[in-house]
Amino acid sequence: MCYDLIAKTNRKEEIQMSLTNPILCLFEITDPNLIVTGISKERCSTNQRIHVVHATLSYQLLKCPHCGHKSLIKNGTHMSHLRLGTLSGGRYEMHLKRQRYQCKDCSKTCGAKTKLVNRNETFTHNIKHQVIVLARDMLTSKEIAKLCGISPSSVQRILNANIHLAYRVKHLPENLCFDEFRSCNHWMPFNCCDAVSHRRIVTLKDRLSKDIIDYFEARFSVQERAQVQSVTIDMNAEYGSFIHRLFPNAATIIDRFHIIQLAGRALDNERTQTIRTIQDKHSRIYHILKSQWRLFHLDEIKVNDSKAVYLRGINEYMTQQNAIDLALDAFPRFRSVYQTYQGILSAIHQKDANAFQSLLTNYQPTSNQMDITINTFIKNGSALLNSCRYPFSNGPIEGLNRKIKALKLNCFGFRNIDNFFIRISLIHE
User: Of these four, 89, 116, 185, 240, which has the most CB atoms within 10 Å of its CB?
Assistant: First the structure.
């Protein structure tokens, strides 16, 4: 009879262990002292269905953690309600019975511990990991909370507790990119990244010169800052005023895209003024300048001069070069602006610093929109020519800013800039 009872007990333990291992593996729980005793479904006060895993935690504790004596006895159990990671978008909990112990010498009590959760917390490491992974996918806090079965405020608390903004990077790269982006509450934060590896270096809350100077001077030594070889910026004049102070050996580079953009804007302004002088709004020249404005921004090499195509707006078959020549022949002033734009475009595309320098030196003002652009280029002479001498551009940091704008759009904006910066650090890891 005694042997039958022992056999039944062993069989129950084997069945129990066979059920325990797969269930714990689903939630990535590796604690060997946890034993699953059952699974049930319940409903909370909000009528939400909860999947409950019932388990016990017990092991042999030899010494009292308070006095160190080997005089512990079992003293009941304590029920803990732990939040597990989700498997199918629902809410999963574990009702864990923890073994309690009492010391005969000091009369103090203690309980069984597990690495599944931190002390005095209910969220397990598994659900925290799921929240961080979903936050990297640019989901809103409400969507993450719905997927994990927790509240949006709990999502933000988990992110604030587990994501910490670095004080500084270990090594300052040799080539940097500077730019800014629009944040919450009309802030314009400053962003900096590595021009080669595209790794984010720092994001500051504003783009004020004093704050940028204070950051780099306080966190990096003069020797570290002297190793920077180049800094790529846009046409923002404030950045160029302190780059040499922070990085004495760095060459300032103006991004090539912004150079072409500024020249193209001058071309469009002159084209618009030319259109206003045309009295006959039905003429071919008017329709060419009005509807075929993209032709004037094309590089001369890419303009088709052999095959006639149908040009909408003009409603005629002609080559692209023929349409351009008709407009340029009618307005010599617009021709000079167009030729200057093509010279800038060619020098930038071929990265010919000598040709760019020659164009700026030999330019003759004709009281048009390009005069202001050329004067701006001359003021930024060395930084402008460096765009042809160095292979770096602001493309990497523009890509990072695009991801930040996508995050802001997906989350319908942020009211707290600190929470915004935490989410930014996640998508840039």
Answer: 116
**Mean pLDDT across 76-102:** 86
- Contact present, 95 and 56 (Cβ < 8 Å): no
Cβ atoms 130, 92 nearer than 8 A: no
Q: Band of the pLDDT at 228, cuts 50, 70, 90?
A: very high
C-alpha to C-alpha distance for 426 and 420, rounded to whole angstroms: 10
pLDDT at 9: 44
Among residues 415, 332, 339, 345, the alpha carbon closest in space to that of 387 is found at: 345
* DSSP conformational letter for 282: T
Angle of the 332-350 helix axis to the 256-276 helix axis, nearest 10: 170
55-75 core/surface letters (b: 16 or more CB in 10 A; e: else): bbbbeebeebeeeeeeebeee
pLDDT at residue number 232: 94
Strand partners, 40: 52
Q: Reduced to 3 states, what is the DSSP secondary structure of residue 83?
A: strand
CA distance 216 to 242: 11
Q: How many CA atoms lie within 13 A of 12 on its CB side?
A: 8
Sign of the alpha-carbon dihedral angle for 39, 43, 48, 49 = positive
CA dihedral 34, 36, 39, 45 (to 10 degrees): -30
Q: Give the whole-angstrom CA distance, residue 410 versus residue 392.
A: 31
Calculate the dihedral angle through the C-alpha atoms of 259, 261, 267, 268, rounding to the nearest 10 degrees. Answer: -160
Cβ neighbours around 395 below 10 Å, total: 14
Of 20-24, 119-123, 375-379, 393-397, which range is least confident?
20-24
Question: Starting at the edge strand that comes first in sequence, how are the strands of the sheet with 251-254 ordered?
Answer: 200-204, 190-194, 175-180, 230-233, 251-254
CA distance 231 to 378: 19
pLDDT digits (tens, 9 = 90+) for 406-421: 999 988 888 889 999 9
pTM for the full model?
0.79
Are 332 and 304 a contacting pair, CB within 8 Å? Answer: no
Q: Strand 49-57 and strand 91-103: pairing?
A: parallel
